[in-house]
Structures are given as structure tokens and as C-alpha cells.
Amino acid sequence: MREGKGKSLIEFADDYCVIDIETTGLDFSCDIIEISALRVKNGEITDKFSELVNPGYHIPSFITELTGISNEMLEDCDAIDKVISRFSDFVSSDLMVGHNIVSFDSNFLFDNLLQNTGKILSNNMVDTMRVSRWILPDLNHHRLSDIC
């Protein structure tokens, strides 16, 4: 449990930020290599944030195949300490929306923000995977491709 972390909500809102990250793997010892967000106000995209992150080492080839992000693309990018601070400024206190955000993306973002800035990511979240399981209980899978 991450103390101070925002709540998982099941609601529809007019204003929010859609969040997605890419990482070097699936466990929390891995590193973020991309953070993206779209700010939505009254159903319209009003701003965007997208930055690649240099993890300080070469990423494995299977991550490049999975994400389309290569070592060459990351060479001149900032490290996580700078990118996570800019992301925090961008998202501010907005409601965050994402697919599997509650158990994956937000934990990476929470841990990196706390470690690098001392700030706590306390934004509330709507997880589209959770919503999908609630609205479409008969689906075998709740991947984005399945619910689309």
C-alpha cells in the first residue's frame, strides 16, 4: 500500500488526464522510458504531455519490439528525475484515467515521483480495465483491443 496514493473511482468525468507509460519491464524494479498524458476538458483534448526517459542503460531488444522505443531514441533524453517533475506539474491535481492505471502505471509514477521529488502522487484515478470488468463482465479478456 502506498500511503497518500489517490483513490480508484468508477465514474465518468468531464475533465481528466489520460495517462500511459512505457517501462523496461513489468515489475517495479524496472524503469519508465516514456510518460504520456492528454488533458481533456469537456470532451476536448486541450493539452498533451509526452516525453521519453533515458534510463541510463541500454534497454533490451524485446522492449524495443514491444514498445517501438529504441536505445537511439533515448540517448539524448532527460533522466526520470527531470521528466517526472515536469509530468507532475502537467497533471497537477487532475483526475487520471488509464487502462490498468491503478495497479501498474500509477505505482510506477507514484514511486518515481516520491523518490525523485519527495512529492506524493495523490490524484484520484479511473481505471478503464476496472470499468470494463464492471460493464462487460462476460468478456474473457479486458485488454484494450478486446474492449474496443
Architecture overview:
- With 148 residues, the protein is an alpha/beta fold.
- The protein is globular, with a radius of gyration of 15 Å.
- Strand 2 (15-23) and strand 3 (32-41) form a beta hairpin.
- The longest helix is centred in the last third of the chain and has 17 residues, at 101-117.
- It has helices at residues 61-67, 71-74, 80-91, 101-117, 128-135, 144-147; strands at 8-9, 15-23, 32-41, 44-52, 96-98, 125-127.
- A six-stranded mixed sheet has the order 1-6-5-2-3-4.
Average per-residue pLDDT, rounded, comes to 92
What is the percentage of strand-forming residues? 15-25%
**How would you describe the oligomerization state of the chains in this entry?**
single chain
Overall number of strands:
6
- CA radius of gyration is 15 Å
* Portion of residues within helices: 25-40%
Write the layout of secondary structure elements.
Blueprint: E1 8-9, E2 15-23, E3 32-41, E4 44-52, H1 61-67, H2 71-74, H3 80-91, E5 96-98, H4 101-117, E6 125-127, H5 128-135, H6 144-147
Helix pairs in contact: 3-4
Brief digest:
With 148 residues, the protein is α/β, with parallel strands linked by helices. It is 35% helix and 24% strand.
Characteristic key phrases:
6-stranded mixed beta sheet, 6 strands, globular
